[in-house]
Amino acid sequence: QQQVKQSPQSLIVQKGGISIINCAYENTAFDYFPWYQQFPGKGPALLIAIRPDVSEKKEGRFTISFNKSAKQFSLHIMDSQPGDSATYFCAARGTSGSRLTFGEGTQLTVNP
Amino acid sequence: SAVISQKPSRDICQRGTSLTIQCQVDSQVTMMFWYRQQPGQSLTLIATANQGSEATYESGFVIDKFPISRPNLTFSTLTVSNMSPEDSSIYLCSVTYSGQSQHFGDGTRLSIL
Questions:
Q1: Cα distance from B63 to chain A (closest Cα, Å)?
Q2: Degrees (nearest 5) of the Cα angle A24, A25, A27?
Q3: Fewer Cβ atoms within 10 A, N terminus or C terminus of chain B?
Q4: CB within 8 Å of B50: residues ≥ 6 apart
Q5: In this predicted model, what pLDDT tens digit does every residue of A15-49 receive, in sequence order?
Q6: Does A97 touch chain B (CB under 8 A)?
């Protein structure tokens, strides 16, 4: 199976709160898991990525948590800001250079 | 990361016509990809553009409808042929940089009347 399932479809968070977006995959050959942030009128921008040999990766307010046994990974946005309001996509890829499989996307709204 | 420029950024076209979208990268990249993103939806891979060989198309996409060229390591074009309203979408060019991360251009917003 090549699917990556993402939830929730939409998320509303108050400023300063934590935003959590979850993804699950089935293909155990996936070995690279990026998250993309997309603003209206723009292409997806790489936010943060993780490989399955670590359980967590943090860059500023953004953290990926990875659970290899459960085949799940999640994006946590700490101290969420209105400027974080965007659509977020998780993705997964097998051997280097091969196609990315994207989740369905989460529209995040951070209220001031 | 690579700077990826797409042209045109948007266009409105008549049914039955064709449009060629250009993707220019500021450095040589191994892999170039073309995606389609319908409004409010996720990204769907159309094809992988291989330098010096035929593009590799995903299921549901054919060369006659979406011919692709990749004349060198910094440039590719995607043509959307014989367009119909169903082809109204955002078309995105993407590259794999340093064999790892994949980066996207800002896309071409295409409307078919």
A1: 18
A2: 165
A3: C
A4: B56, B70
A5: 999 999 999 999 888 989 999 999 999 999 999 99
A6: yes
